UniProtKB/TrEMBL annotation:
Organism expressing this protein natively: freshwater metagenome
SMART domains, per the entry: MR_MLE (SM00922)
GO terms classed as biological process: amino acid catabolic process; carbohydrate catabolic process
Mandelate racemase/muconate lactonizing enzyme C-terminal domain ranges (all copies): 129-264
Record protein name field: Unannotated protein
PANTHER family given in the database record: D-GALACTONATE DEHYDRATASE-RELATED, STARVATION-SENSING PROTEIN RSPA
InterPro entries: D-mannonate_dehydratase-like (IPR034589), DgoD-like (IPR034593), Enolase-like_C_sf (IPR036849), Enolase-like_N (IPR029017), Enolase_C-like (IPR029065), Mandel_Rmase/mucon_lact_enz_CS (IPR018110), Mandelate_racemase_C (IPR013342), Mandelate_racemase_N_dom (IPR013341)
Length: 409
C-alpha cells in the first residue's frame, strides 16, 4: 500500500487549521493535524516543500520507519514546526492503517482500557459572578472537572478569560491569535495575580463545594519560587492540578516547586519531544504530561512518552484546546482510551463552522469523551466547507510587565 497523493490544506473556520491528507494507491485516505497556532504557514511550507516529496511511493504501513526517517533524516531535529509536521504525517498514517484493518484506531493501540475519557472544560470570568455563571454553564453541559481562570483587579486583559475586553467578550472558544498586523500587547502583574487567585478558589469552593474537580493554568508566568508559593497557597482548595506554573525548559526548576507544595503539577503543552521531559519524569517532578499529539510528533511519539511516564505513576493530560483541530482531538481520544495511565483530557467545544469543515464521530456525554467506532480516526474533511474559510494571518498576543519588560504570555 503506497502513498500516492499528499495534500496540505489550510482553512480558517473561526481560527486557522492545517490538515494533511494522504491518499494511498488503493484509495484509502488518512488525515493528520499539523496546526501550530500563529505559525501555521511555517508548518505548511515544511510539509509541502520538504516532506511531501519524501512520502510519495512510501509504504503507508511502515509508520515507525517513516517517523524515524522524517525525524533523523532531516538532521535538524525537534522544534515545534518539525514535530507538528511529523505529527501530521504520523496521525494520517495511523488513520490509514486503522481503516485498512477496518477498526477504530484505539483497537490497534491495544484496545480500550476504559469506557470513556474524563474531560475538563474551561470556565472563566472577569469577575466572580461571571466566573460562577461560566462554571454553572459547564456543569449544565455535563462537565464534572473544570479549569478556573479569572480576571485580576487592575489588569484589563487576562489569559484564559473570555470576558476580557481583548477577547471580545465571547464564550471561551475565542481565538487568542488576533487578526492584526502586529501581535496585541497585554500587561501582566504577577504579585497581583498571586494575591488574588487564592481568594477566587476560596469563593469557588464555598459556592460549589468540595466535590467539583478544579484545575488552573499559570501559563508559564511565575518564577520557580513564585510557583512554589502559589502552589502552597492553593493547597486548601484541593486542585486536580496547577498547570505550567513556571517555564519548564529548565527542568531542574520544578525541583524547587516540588519541594514546597503538594499541589499536583502538570507541564508540557509547549514541549515537543521526550527529551523535554527526561528529568521531569525520571525524577518525578510532575504528575501529568500535557503535550499535544499534534505538537509532539504524533501518536507514535506520544505513546512512547506516556509509556515512559507510566513507570513513575505519572499520568496523561493531553493538550486539547480549540486550536487543536478535530483531527488532532480524535487522535488524542484514541490514545486516551487505550493507554493505562490516562489522567484527564482537556476539551473545548469547537465552533459550528469548524464542525462543518470536520465531520466527527467522537462524542461527549456526562463528562466523558469517546472517539467512536468508525474505522480509523473517525474524522472526515468537508472540502466544500473548508474552501469557504481561507487562511487569515493571525498572531498570538505578547505579554509585558507594567514597566514594559517583555514577559511570558
Amino acid at each position: 500500500m503506497k502513498i500516492e497523493k499528499v495534500e496540505v490544506i489550510v482553512s480558517s473556520p473561526d481560527r486557522n487549521f492545517l490538515t494533511l491528507r494522504l491518499t494511498t494507491d488503493d484509495g484509502l485516505v488518512g488525515l493528520g493535524d499539523g496546526t501550530l497556532n500563529g505559525r501555521e504557514l511555517a508548518v505548511a511550507s515544511y510539509l509541502e516543500n520538504h516532506v511531501a516529496p519524501l512520502l510519495i511511493g512510501r509504504d503507508a504501513h511502515r509508520i515507525e520507519d517513516t517517523w524515524q526517517y522524517l525525524y533523523k533524516g532531516a538532521y535538524w531535529r525537534r522544534g515545534p514546526v518539525t514535530m507538528a509536521a511529523i505529527a501530521a504525517v504520523d496521525v494520517a498514517l495511523w488513520d490509514i492503517k486503522a481503516k485498512a484493518a477496518n477498526m477504530p484506531l484505539y483497537q490497534l493501540l491495544g484496545g480500550a482500557s476504559r469506557t470513556g475519557a474524563r474531560a475538563y472544560g474551561h470556565a472563566s470570568g472577569f469577575s466572580i459572578p461571571e466566573l460562577f455563571d461560566s462554571i454553572r454553564d459547564h456543569q449544565e453541559q455535563g462537565f464534572k472537572a473544570i479549569r478556573i481562570q479569572t480576571g485580576i483587579p487592575g489588569l484589563s486583559s487576562i489569559y484564559g478569560v473570555a470576558s476580557s475586553p481583548s477577547a471580545g467578550g465571547k464564550r471561551y472558544d475565542y481565538e487568542p491569535a488576533r487578526r492584526t498586523k502586529l501581535p496585541v500587547e497585554e500587561i501582566w502583574d504577577t504579585p497581583s495575580y498571586m494575591r488574588h487567585l487564592p481568594t477566587v478558589f476560596e469563593a469557588v469552593r464555598n459556592e460549589f463545594g468540595p466535590e467539583l474537580t478544579l484545575l488552573h493554568d499559570g501559563h508559564h508566568r511565575m518564577t520557580p519560587i513564585q510557583a512554589a508559593k502559589l502552589g502552597k497557597s492553593l493547597e486548601p482548595y484541593d486542585l486536580f492540578w496547577l498547570e505550567d506554573c513556571t517555564p519548564a525548559e529548565n527542568q531542574e526548576a520544578l525541583r524547587l516547586v516540588r519541594q514546597h507544595t503538594t499541589t499536583p503539577l502538570a507541564i508540557g503543552e509547549v514541549f515537543n519531544t521526550v527529551w523535554d521531559y527526561q528529568t521531569l519524569i525520571q525524577d518525578q517532578l510532575i504528575d501529568y504530561v500535557r503535550s499535544a499529539v499534534t505538537h509532539t510528533g504524533g501518536i507514535t511519539a506520544m505513546r512512547k512518552i506516556l509509556d515512559f511516564a507510566a513507570q513513575y505513576q505519572i499520568k496523561s493530560g493531553i493538550h486539547g484546546p480549540t486550536d487543536i483541530s478535530p483531527v488532532g482531538m480524535a487522535a488524542a481520544l484514541h490514545l486516551d482510551l487505550a493507554i493505562h495511565n490516562f489522567g484527564i483530557q482537556e476539551y473545548m467545544r469547537h465552533s459550528e463552522a469548524t464542525n462543518e469543515v470536520f465531520i466527527q464521530s467522537f462524542t461527549f456525554e456526562d463528562g466523558y469523551l469517546h472517539p467512536g467506532e468508525q474505522p480509523g480516526l473517525g474524522v472526515t474533511l468537508n472540502d466544500e466547507a473548508s474552501s469557504k474559510f481561507p487562511y487569515q494571518s493571525a498572531y498570538l498576543p505578547v505579554n509585558r510587565l507594567q514597566d514594559g519588560t517583555s514577559h511570558d504570555w
